[in-house]
């Protein structure tokens, strides 16, 4: 009961008029920055950091929390409407969310995202309050071998599921891994695949690849079809800003499953929200195939609901990791850690004793931010959807400009802008030959983690490969991986048998 009483005291701090104003300002700023391709909540917090020293610490961090959650809402809005996610956490939402928008269900897609973000965020905030010590203990169970097993699971499981052709899925994954290893080797300090170009020494940014493949690739695809299919440039949008009872019942299990997947990842440093969103999307796709409905690829509401809930659930528990352990597991959390230090505060177990008003006020503001964002975003879903009514040549030209401005603003490099165009052409080619995009993104996100975990595990074990199956967590991951791959192969063989049987029936007939 002690956490509950502390939380009530925190609401007393967060609900003061000024702090409530800072929550609303943070939510608005986060949403506004999130809709810009290549930007996101981390950049918003970084830009606001020098401007908040005039505020008291509680007001500053309450506003940062609003920006943090608001950025995720904004990222999802543009990911769904324009196929241009602001951050990696919104990539998985583009796969089915943008298809929903293209089929005239943009307001429903935005409502699904808003409710999913609210569900995942609210549940994760409750978990943070009551189960933070248990989550912190869980994070200590993961070592390099477990991280490698987790990355391998994501590689193989997603590549074998997201495409009808396993070969195309693996080809996309290999391309993502190839991009991820460009740059200076963090262990040996040698150049890798840079061709002596100094601009590539720091590697290729995930933001650049995300914007290029998902945004510019889509722009090139639409432009290539303009003359042959003028109708491809027109996206109709129905005005219903809410979900029907059937849609809500279909999305509800996916919201809950996505939340369950995202919760533990907030305290496990595996790259932020990207990993659980991809895993949630992959799970829903496998369940869809197993049920025989095969709605994925046509705008499946569950394929949007699960990643949205997973991403926001991860964000909530990431704050628990920052506050309880002083461990930032995302770029935004790292910037907030720097902000704590600027105020002379050190996140960790002692922070709850030294600054209880600040900590519990901040935790209470998470709940308020979720409600504020739902109120702001749900009624405005039809308004955001009207962006689709802009004449498409102007709309996609504007997207191109914002993509290039966003990349130049984050890197201050003309070279990155040219690289953006080149990788965008690769994204267009992948669409042209029906090569899935998700494995490429997973390779980019998890490639560095898998490489560093592999090396660390081998170094710590003296080169003994048995270290990868020496813990219960690793063994469970590999067993589940074998089961997933086996089920995928069995499903494909069964489908071929059915198709062969149908052909024989037609011949006999």
From TrEMBL:
Q: Which UniProt keywords apply?
A: Membrane, Transmembrane, Transmembrane helix
Ranges that cross the membrane: 20-39, 45-73, 109-132, 138-158, 165-184, 204-223, 322-340, 360-381, 393-409, 415-430, 437-454, 466-490
Q: What superkingdom does the record give?
A: Bacteria
May I ask which residue range the UniProt record assigns to the signal sequence? none
Q: Which InterPro entries match?
A: DUF112_TM
Pfam short name (any one):
TctA
Q: Where is the DUF112 domain?
A: 20-442
Name listed for the protein in its UniProt record: Tripartite tricarboxylate transporter permease TctA
